[in-house]
Amino acid sequence: MKLKAELFQAYLNCPTKCWLLSQAERGAGNVYAEWVKQQNQAYRNESLQRLLETVPNGERVMAPTSDGIKPAKWRIAAELVVQAPWVNASDSVQSDALAVTERPRHPGDGGAEPGPQPEQWFLESAIDALERVPKSRTRAAHLVPIRFIRDNNLTKDDKLLLAYDALTLSQVLGRQITAGKIVHGDELVTMKIKTTPLARQARKTVEEIATMISSGSPPDLVLNRRCSECEFEARCRQEATAKDDLSLLSNMKGKERSKFNSEGIFTVTQLSYTFRPRRRPKRLRDRREKYHHALRALAIRERKIHIVGRPELKIDGTPVYLDVEGLPDRDFYYLVGARVHRAGSAVQYSFWASSLEEEKTVWSGFLELLSTIANPVLIHYGSYETTFLKRMCDRYYRPPDSSAAGYGIKAALNALSFLFAQIYFPTYSNRLKDIGAWLGCHWTSANASGTQSIIWRTQWEKSGDPALKQELINYNSEDCQALETLTDTLTQLCSPDHRSDLENGTDPKAVFAEPSTSKDTLWPRFSSAIESFASINKAARWDFQRERVYIRTDQLLNRASKARKCREKRIKRTNEEVVLAREPVCPNCDRRMDKVGSATKTTYDIRFSRFGLKRWVVTYRFDRLWCRHCNSYLGKPEHIKPWGWCGRNLVMFMMFKIVDLCMTQRAVADELNHLFGLGLQEGEVHRMKSRAAEHYADARARILAKMLKGNLIHADETPIVLKHKRGYVWVFATFHEVAYFYTETREGTFVEQALKEFKGVIVSDFYSPYDALPCPQQKCLIHLMRDLNDAVLDYPYDEELKGMVVEFGELLRSIVQTIDRWGLKSRFLGKHIVDVARFYRKRINITHRSEPALKWKERFLKNREGLFTFLSHDGIPWNNNNAEHAIKAFARLRRAILGLSTAKGIEEYLILLSVCQTCKYSSVDFLDFLLSGDTDVDSFAQKRRKAKQRTAECPF
Predict the structure, then answer these.
(1) Is 700 exposed, middle or buried (0-12, 13-18, 19+ CB in 10 A)?
(2) Which residue of 333, 337, 833, 838 could cross-link 476, Cys pair, CB 3.0 to 4.6 Å?
(3) Distance of CA 212 to CAs 23, 216, 240, 832, 889, Å?
(4) Residues 767/747, Cβ–Cβ less than 8 Å
(5) What pLDDT does 97 receive?
(6) Residue 592 has what DSSP assignment?
(7) CA distances from 62 to 4, 43, 132 (A)
(8) What is the CA radius of gyration of the chain?
């Protein structure tokens, strides 16, 4: 079977088009497609004629045979058709990707049934021109294929077509064609293209085409942006509409469609039932909601406009509805239409450019119009006009911002950007033609479109027919009128007066797409438009009645209310009095100081016995001294200042309960007040936490410094919700230390700065910022295994993916068995390096066709250096469970915080939690460490180990 260049080009545009052409089907016709075909052929003939005129008659040839290419002496060959059997260059055998045809078995045949026989495929390409370059001192003679393309701007598909020509020619000659030329545009620009980098993609495309055609079944129908240029547009759209296919939604990407299909959703109607309005968090209230395909489908099913949030459209000035027509290929704007209301009626202005030289005149006329309007506000639809305004300002003239024209350009409003993801019309796309037609707008020409305007303009440039010019002006003015209708509709939908109709559901054409307020919380707030109802409901609240009504008739409630208003007093029963004597010598001038009075300081503390706690109140008495020579003053002694009226043991006991037992600050205060009568307030507990965190800040710094000197760090991160924003907590852990840090974002700058001095191996998940660290990486294989397991569950019938996962599972299981027997020692694990190489050679480096298998192949190749680092290092684990265990400790604390802390408060929690978890990892009791007064966990752990060793050696 022949695979022609036309099929190759059609496949690049749409697989369905390629299939239909291979089956010799004819489309219903497309005016633009036929016009483009004629223009391309005319351009090819004209360009080829010019090329042949540059070569003498004896050195050019028309339509030579492929057999005479090698011995020929010509310089240019035109209209050369080459054909060659398709052979995969990598192994010089027929590609196994090509489909097979089965030979029928006859009843008289003996022996076993013959297997499928490969079908012979031929590549065929009609090369526009072929140039022979004679050999030189530095290079042998070679051939250069030439392709003529009318467009001024080349695309990747154009270059792939040239690569296909080179591939076919390579099969004919038996040697590789490494370069080609493309002559394109109005100026006949010649661009040299290296085809070698594109050869792999061209071969892959050829294999996909061969597989599709030989399978005997058409590909899944998918509408795309190229449909408007295809002769099968009517057929495909009719079929898609009959099936209610998801591809009718114009802005849905292929990956999104595949995801919906994997969930069993294949039609727009099915998709519409999946939309569930969600209540957005407060921190995201000011951000625009993401685009929902399901909401678009719901709008189509219900035939109503659906509005998300509370969009507000403000037009501060006189609206000027702008629409621009141009030739995108030439960056030429030939028609600017503006619609303005003057004296109660709409006036249409059209600025026409007959040639590129008149484009500046069009721009000047448009600016002059804006200068005559008070506070003009340009309203357009789409990015085409945005690009027009920017290019005209850069190319010709930008009016001052203080002028009317400058204000209009600066205040330009893109109606498409405004309604996107906020207002969903019941149309399959957001094209102005679709929305305008739904709103009742009409266009004079039945086939009016952007592509049709290009045909009209090109035909007018050749014929000068005034009817074509008038057709374009009418089309442009009707676009402006449709834009005005759309803007009026948006203004009405966003107006405060109309909002009440939408909230009450009385508007038959539009609704709010948002959750019901009654389901926002378990106990919804009462709301009413009647003011008296709100005050009545307030008077019926439990606390209001108890504090304002019942206490007037119930004496018990009255006394209880008065008791609550009085702050609980501290019970002052002194257990110990300490007189602090100090030398009356000035620390600054060494002279005698005068006594100016005496003072007392009472601290409330607790004492620990072997099996209990006791409140302990100490009263300190000391003298206040003053130096008359240097005016120095000595008041409260330093050693009783740090914790205020709380003793050290009391503060550390509070930190133990808050950090290790994950109690809230209010619960800690209530418990201590109930047991010891301390009269603690929640705010005082918070202040004690801040002082304790400041006291142990250096301890966390020492923990991190010790980790950086080691050979292993586990790293992970987790989000946390604060009062007014969202942040992230990073954890660095070893087998003996843990350090927590807070950042406002998840960017990798913090990790790079914190671990820049680390030279060992870092074990982490697959978050990309860890890859920037200048040290060996070990990726968590547990994370990888879970992702692989999810992929198999999502695609249970993908044999390529399943085979890859099974091979990886067997490889990892053998490695884990070695670890269970010998531990994390490289001299035993090194033998598995060969198994890893075999796995990559057998399962990863081969050609895959399924999309999930290709995705996992890329992931395996990308992370190859970091998946099995532990095989070459001693003591490096293959998972990140150490960091995840530390994350669990923070998660327990996070539940107690309940999102009520600030960034500063979280940082204080993390300092204390770092000390707490490091104590646990070092087999040290956290409370014992706090009560010891030490600030170095490592030093305290060594003292404890030595003490236990002495006790073991001498138990008496």
Answers:
(1) buried
(2) 337
(3) 12, 7, 20, 40, 54
(4) no
(5) 33
(6) B
(7) 20, 18, 14
(8) 40
Instruction: Compare 116 and 469 and report the one with higher pLDDT.
Output: 469
Q: Is 645 exposed, middle or buried (0-12, 13-18, 19+ CB in 10 A)?
A: middle
Alpha-carbon gap, residue 710 to 813, rounded angstroms: 29
Type of residue found at 609: S
Comparing C-alpha atoms, which of 415, 320, 416, 312 is closest to residue 375?
320
Alpha-carbon distances of 910 from 657, 668, 734, 764, 922, rounded to whole Å: 15, 19, 17, 20, 18
DSSP count for the chain of H helices, then E strands = 35, 26
Which of 98-112, 256-270, 425-439 holds the top average pLDDT?
A: 425-439
Contact 716, 869 (CB under 8 A): no
Encode pLDDT of 144-191 as tens digits.
999 999 998 899 999 999 999 999 998 888 888 999 999 999 888 999
Among 866, 813, 811, which residue's Cα sits nearest to residue 841?
Answer: 811
Using CB atoms within 10 A of its CB, is residue 475 exposed (0-12), middle (13-18) or buried (19+)? Answer: buried
Q: How far apart are CA 378 and CA 386, in angstroms?
A: 10
**Closest of 701, 752, 747, 753 to residue 728, by C-alpha:** 747
What tokens appear for 115 in the block? Answer: 């297997």
Q: Which H or E run contains 535?
A: helix 531-539
Higher pLDDT, 733 or 516: 733
For the chain, how far is it from start to end, CA to CA, in angstroms?
Answer: 97
In whole angstroms, what separates CA 477 from the centre of its chain? 40
Q: Write the CB contacts of 895 (distance below 8 Å, at least 6 apart in sequence).
A: 662
Q: Are 299 and 438 in contact (CB under 8 A)?
A: no
Domains of the chain listed by start with CATH number: 2-100+118-215 (3.90.320), 244-308+503-514 (no CATH), 318-494 (3.30.420.10), 526-566 (no CATH), 576-648 (no CATH), 696-778+880-944 (3.30.420.10), 781-871 (no CATH)
Q: What is the Cα–Cα distance from 325 to 398, expressed in whole angstroms?
A: 20
pLDDT exceeds 80 at position 941:
yes
Residue whose C-alpha is closest to residue 646's, from 680, 612, 623, 614: 680
Q: Which two tokens stand for residue 769?
A: 């910022």
> CA-based angle 368:373:375, to the nearest 5?
120
What six digits make up the tokens of 672? 């201590």
Q: Tell me the pLDDT tens digit for each residue of 830-883.
A: 999 999 999 888 888 787 778 888 888 888 988 888 899 999 999 999 888 888
Q: How far apart are CA 317 and CA 374, in angstroms?
A: 7
Which of 597, 599, 587, 655 has its CA nearest to residue 627? 587
Residue 726 and residue 720 in contact, taking contact as beta carbons nearer than 8 Å: yes
Strands 117-118 and 100-101 come out as antiparallel
Block residue for tokens 């090509």: 98
CA distance 216 to 902: 64
Could you please report the per-residue DSSP string of 77-104? EEEEEEEEE--BTTTTB--TTS-EEPPP
- Of 926, 948, 945, nearest to 699 by C-alpha is 926
Residue 769 three-state SS: helix
Q: Report the distance separating Cα 676 and Cα 477, nearest Å.
A: 84
**H or E, element range at 918:** helix 903-921
Q: How far apart, in whole angstroms, are the C-alpha atoms of residue 391 and residue 362?
A: 13
Q: At residue 435, what is the residue type?
A: I
